[in-house]
Amino acid sequence: MTDPAQLSPLRRIVFVSLPFTFAYLLSELFRNVNAVLEPRLTAEFQLEPATMGMMTSAFLGALAGSQLFVGQALDRFGPKRVLVVTLFLAVVASALFAGAQTAHMLVLARFMIGLGLSACWTGAYKANTLWWPRERLPLVNAITIAAAGLGSLAVTSPTEWLLRQIGWREIFLGLAGVTATIALIIAAVVPPQTRERAAPAIPEPAVKGLRGVLTHPAFLTIAPASALCQGAWVAYQGLWAGVWLRDAIDLQSTAAASILMALSLAVILGQFGFGLLADRIARTDRHLFHLTFALTLGFVLCQFAVAGAGASLQPILWAGYGLFTAGPILAYALLVRLLPDAVSGRAIAMLNLGAVLTGFLMQGGIGAGIEALVRLGWSISSAHVAFIVLIAGLQAIALAWMALHQGRALGLDKVR
After folding, report:
1. Is residue 195 part of a domain?
2. Distance CA 64, CA 118 (A)
3. Are 285 and 339 in contact (CB under 8 A)?
4. Which of 62, 252, 300, 380 ranks highest by number of CB atoms within 10 Å?
5. Alpha-carbon span 295 to 307, nearest angstrom
6. What does the alpha-carbon distance between residue 228 and residue 362 come to, in Å, rounded to a whole number?
7. Distance from first CA to last CA of the chain, Å, rounded?
């Protein structure tokens, strides 16, 4: 065991935070890479939109289905051991994806990649919890989110340029090598498990606490809007934004990749900037609630604007979309304030699970829905518009619910 107090902040950054942040960055890269690869994969494998959506969403399906198990493994074995094992599964899966000869192989490999990277997000946060003082966690977590966003940035214009130099199969073989390298770095440089704050498997009485979280007014008020917005963010940044720009707006792949890069950069700036703003001005639960609501409303309005705007406004609107993703993410901090410490971890896990499940359903469902509308005679552009408006409309309803139940969320007793 290693006491965190024995390591200077610089050593904690170099030997703990950076390795796990690189793993988180890698998962963001894998999650979003299909937004740029879609034209090549569609042409080579003759993929229908529904198949493309299912293949891309397989990553999220694996992520959602594994979260409860991953959480318990991280608590029992620690992030170092869990990530080393799971990342090597991702190495095998990435090589399998590179060698795929059928659409079914793509789906299977994508699912396995999701399993292999399922501990990256929670592993990074678990490592921060173990190695940093509690009062520094908001800042450390904000930096982790912003740094990991570079993975999304890497799969825009840089990947589009790389695709012109080498094929997509070579890219995935390279990613397999990068993944193996990160796993070996974590195994080699991360110090032995720090003092154990985690317990073994959750005991039976904790089930009541989980039920209490799911039925608590704060969770019921905040979770619908946050999950719907995060799900849309995952589905569109990971695939459908690029398809929308190429098929509905009729932009060239290079122009679309540039807009996706602006979106990814805006996500990084928004998460970090609005995270610092929340730390400065959201001193009370009510202030944080209002800031979360306002930023989430901006996210919803950007989607309505995207659906109705022409090509010239798409870059600035997608950048705004990225900036306002900070709203749904602030919901995590808001829930932690409104629920007691004893159940805060489960509250975060349940909110994350809802977001991933929503993203999984949207990423696959949008493709099937667009395909169905086109068969009914709709144009590809109008089919895309219909789904953007539908999703934004559902988010608006959830936001209205959030506004109507603000008093209950902020005023009732905490979960016991």
Report:
1. no
2. 8
3. no
4. 300
5. 19
6. 9
7. 33
Residue tagged 């900070």 (tokens): 326
Name the burial class of residue 33, with classes exposed (0-12), middle (13-18) and buried (19+) by CB atoms within 10 angstroms of its CB. buried
Determine the Cα–Cα distance for residues 289 and 69; give it in Å rounded to an integer.
31
The two tokens of residue 352 are: 């994350």
- If asked whether residues 136 and 236 sit together in one domain, one would say no
Tens-binned pLDDT, residue by residue, of the chain (416 aa):
555 556 777 888 888 889 999 999 999 888 878 778 888 888 888 888 778 878 878 888 888 888 777 777 877 788 899 999 999 999 999 999 999 999 899 999 999 999 999 888 878 877 887 887 765 665 677 778 778 778 777 777 788 888 888 888 999 999 999 999 999 999 999 988 655 444 333 343 333 566 787 888 999 999 999 999 999 998 898 789 989 999 999 998 888 888 988 998 898 898 888 878 877 777 788 888 999 999 999 999 999 999 999 999 999 999 999 999 989 988 877 887 787 766 666 777 788 888 888 988 898 889 889 999 999 999 999 999 999 999 999 999 999 999 999 998 887 444 44
Instruction: State the Cα–Cα distance between residues 196 and 349, nearest whole angstrom.
Output: 20
Structural contact between residues 360 and 345, judged by C-beta atoms closer than 8 angstroms: no
Task: Encode 51-69: b = buried (16+ Cβ within 10 Å), e = exposed.
Answer: bbbbbbbbbbbbbbbbbee
CA max distance for the chain? 67
Query: Are both 139 and 256 inside the same structural domain?
Result: no
Q: Whole domain around residue 321: which residue ranges?
A: 203-411
Distance CA 141, CA 335 (A): 16
